[in-house]
Write a structure and sequence with these properties.
Organism: Roseiflexus castenholzii (strain DSM 13941 / HLO8)
Shape: elongated
Number of helices: 0
InterPro entries: A-crystallin/Hsp20_dom, HSP20-like_chaperone
CATH architecture of one domain: Sandwich
Keywords: Stress response
Order of helices and strands: EEEEEEEEE
Pfam family, one: HSP20
Radius of gyration: 21 Å
Protein name: Molecular chaperone (Small heat shock protein)-like protein
Structural class: mainly beta
Number of strands: 9
Length: about 140
């Protein structure tokens, strides 16, 4: 049973005067697909509604860190929030690698809400770099 078999247990619902209740303020994690080819790792990260300028990518030989912010504006005359499933605010993910990658040759592009990061495997020891994200139409 849900309440440790206590038939008198109940859930207390409090009323609030705010037009909406604050939600979980922890960073959210976008969905990530990780693929390995003969030459590289490919990450595809779902970032609909995130501006490329709000994303930072740090490529290290053993992992990549992606951080950023998705900002969703609420209507100025909001009376009540009925449903909120789209996460917003800060996010950060780290993806470790079994084989070292070459941060200097890492590339990224943003296309229709998906961030694609190509991380070629290293031939020798590599260093950490910050990766520029290309936007749709940019070569």
């Amino acid at each position: 049973m849900i309440f440790d078999d206590n038939p008198h247990a109940s859930i207390r619902i409090l009323r609030t005067r705010m037009p909406y209740a604050p939600f979980d303020m922890r960073p959210w994690s976008p969905a990530v697909n990780v693929f390995e080819t003969e030459q590289a790792m490919l990450l595809v990260i779902e970032l609909a509604g995130v501006e490329p300028s709000n994303v930072q990518i740090e490529a290290h030989p053993q992992f990549v860190r992606i951080a950023g912010v998705r900002q969703i504006a609420l209507p100025h005359d909001l009376r009540r929030l009925h449903r909120m499933e789209i996460a917003s605010g800060a996010f950060q993910i780290e993806v470790p690698f079994d084989r070292p990658i070459d941060p200097d040759r890492t590339t990224a592009r943003f296309n229709t809400g998906l961030l694609e990061i190509w991380l070629p495997f290293a031939g020798r020891g590599a260093r950490q770099v910050v990766v520029h994200i290309k936007q749709e139409g940019e070569s």
